[in-house]
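Intended use. Records like the one below are meant for learning the mapping from a protein sequence to its folded structure. Do not use them to infer anything beyond what is encoded.
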Amino acid sequence: VDTTRESPSSEWWRGDMALRRLLQGIVLPRTTGRHVGASFSTEAGETIRATLFPGDGIGPEIAESVKQVFNVAGVPIEWEEHYVGTEVDPRTESFLTWESLESVRRNKVGLKGPMATPIGKGHRSLNLTLRKELGLYANVRPCNSLPGYKTRYDDVNLVTIRENTEGEYSGLEHQVVRGVVESLKIITRQASLRVAEYAFHYAKANGRERVSAIHKANIMRKTDGLFLKCCREVAEKYPEITYEEVIIDNCCMTVC
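Structure written out for the chain above:
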């Protein structure tokens, strides 16, 4: 018997343990307080109350699996479920109800499944509504290799932080004339400084040594130019962190 090879069950077990450690590092109580750029935390032994949007399509199935995973990991969490409404709520101008948004504001933490905005006029995108109403300006997406899972690249450890309320995600577009559609890209100093501050604070709080501003200022000189100017301004306050600017094309080529 070749004892150097692991059975499928042992491989699964090793991956399961890795998942438990990952979840515990993200959501289990460690310190008190909630800070910009830091993980959500709570008092030891305190149950976390979180808002859950199961979403549409495969969303409810995913949400149910997530609840099972959190339960296995021993996370002390209580879910408050809210569903997308059947008609537009005039207070939010979307199918997301005001009560569901208030739930997130009250709990300070939420999880959502895929949401499909119904086709038609007179209402906003569901995701855009969440971003605007809750001030979710920083889209934080960590990408890490998990022990026990074989992937194309090893030791992946990076975090992308995207400004969530401006740029092409403003949702400002209209038809100029028949066959011609115009989309507006909005960049402001306030939002750029805010997300840059978040990124540097996150880097400092999590032991990251480098912050890269990804841009297209070689073409969009005004908009992305303002964004880079704000990033440089914030970078001066964090001399211990290396700051660099990378054109999006080069960034994608390097990462891939």
